[in-house]
Amino acid sequence: MDGLSTKSKLHSRVSKFVGWIAPDSETREKIKQQADEVRDRIIDKAREDGVVITATPKAGSFAKKTGLRRHMRGDSEVEGQDIDVPFVVKPPKEGEYPLQPMIDKFYKYADSSYPKTEKESTKSSVKLKFTSTLSYDLVPLFTAGDPEKQILVRTTGEQIVTSVQKHTEFIKSRTQKSDEKKGVVLFNECVRLMKWWRDTKCAKADYLTDVPSIVVDLLCAKAFDKRSVQSTYAQTLSEWCTYLAHVVSNKESVSFSDYTSKAGQAISGEWSVIDPVNPDNNIAQRFQGYEVDELGEWFQEARESWSRAISANMMGDDAKSLEHLVELLGNPFKNHCNE
Fold first, then answer.
1. What is the average pLDDT value for the chain, to the nearest integer?
2. Which of 9, 13, 164, 243 could pair with 337 in a Cys bridge, judged by C-beta atoms 3.0 to 4.6 Å apart?
3. pLDDT digits (tens, 9 = 90+) for 227-272
4. ∠ CA 248-70-312 to the nearest 5 degrees?
5. If you ran DSSP here, which 8-state letter would residue 143 be given?
6. In this structure, are strands 53-55 and 81-89 parallel, antiparallel, or unpaired?
7. Among 106, 126, 129, residue whose Cα is nearest residue 117
8. Where are the chain's structural domains?
9. What is the pLDDT at residue 266?
């Protein structure tokens, strides 16, 4: 088997799998329409209650086009999408940001708007479960003076200045930049693969059972900034994992200059992944040292697996290449890389 055909086989397999984990275009359009309906109904109920909603910006992995329609749960794939629907609320009193009372209000608005739809309150949102595979998370944020910024209140009471619009723009700008390069894969599709890979690792982790999507987004963005994208998913992710294995294993700080020239600050924590919108916010502050070490080991293993999958294909050993891809992406890859 010659190099071109082996490259095509490997890339075709991964491409098919990306198509299987990504929402299809018809589904995306229906979700957008339903999300708009949810926004309108909640805004109406809030207005009746005297609550002022100043904006409902598009946010989350759905808006960034990095979301999955299927996820790994243990050794099996599960259908499901959670769509973030943020509502920026004017606080009842200046300087006061009552998260739990606002969640209670949004639950009441959701219950009044969709009385027959299953719903639940979480620590930071109200989840509307339209079907077993589609939910909308109603997320209250508070105004921050700047229309492009919001105040996110954590369950600890900590108040973080953020910008969901800029977070979305941050990811989409890199997808656009990759799209301008002919003959290469798209940034956002690589992020999807990394999120799927993250799920397979978290399911069997010793310590690191949760890696937030924002951390995956930012690590992928830093890898893209340093290594760009190549003509195949395998080559791209091999280079990304090689770079990130070094960064994470050495606990190098990750920061960006998209929206500020201010470098990442000396923030407490074992490792720093700095919010590109707010340089005082360390996204990775929650990680313990042993968790960062485990994440570094994951990237080292992924680097080796991608390299071996590429080498096996170039040598014409199709079965061995597939074996390494299954090691990386789990048993579902074997069943859904040829559809």
1. 91
2. 13
3. 999 999 999 999 999 999 999 999 999 999 999 876 555 467 899 9
4. 60
5. E
6. antiparallel
7. 129
8. 3-336
9. 47
CA 189: distance to chain centroid?
Answer: 11
Nearest in space to 136 (alpha carbons), one of 116, 148, 120: 120
The DSSP string of 47-76 is HHTTPPEEE----HHHHHT---SEEEETTE
Q: Report helix, strand or coil for 286.
A: coil
Q: What CATH architecture applies to the domain 3-336?
A: 2-Layer Sandwich (3.30)
Running DSSP on this structure, what letter comes out for residue 24?
A: P
**Closest by CA position to 109, among listed 49, 153, 35:** 49
Whose structure tokens read 């799920």?
A: 199
Q: Which two tokens stand for residue 240?
A: 């990304």
Q: Is the pLDDT of residue 339 over 70?
A: no
Euclidean distance between CA atoms 205 and 131, whole angstroms: 30
Q: Is a pLDDT exceeding 90 seen at residue 158?
A: no
Could you say which DSSP state residue 274 is in?
A: B
Helical packing angle, 3-21 and 233-249, nearest 10°: 70
Q: What is the pLDDT of residues 185-210, one digit of tens each?
A: 999 999 999 999 999 999 899 999 99
Closest CA to 76 of 295, 332, 334, 335: 332
Give the strand pairing for 134-143 and 81-89: parallel
Tokens, residue 324: 């390494």
The band of 6, judged by pLDDT with boundaries at 50, 70 and 90, is very low
The H or E element spanning position 103 is helix 99-113
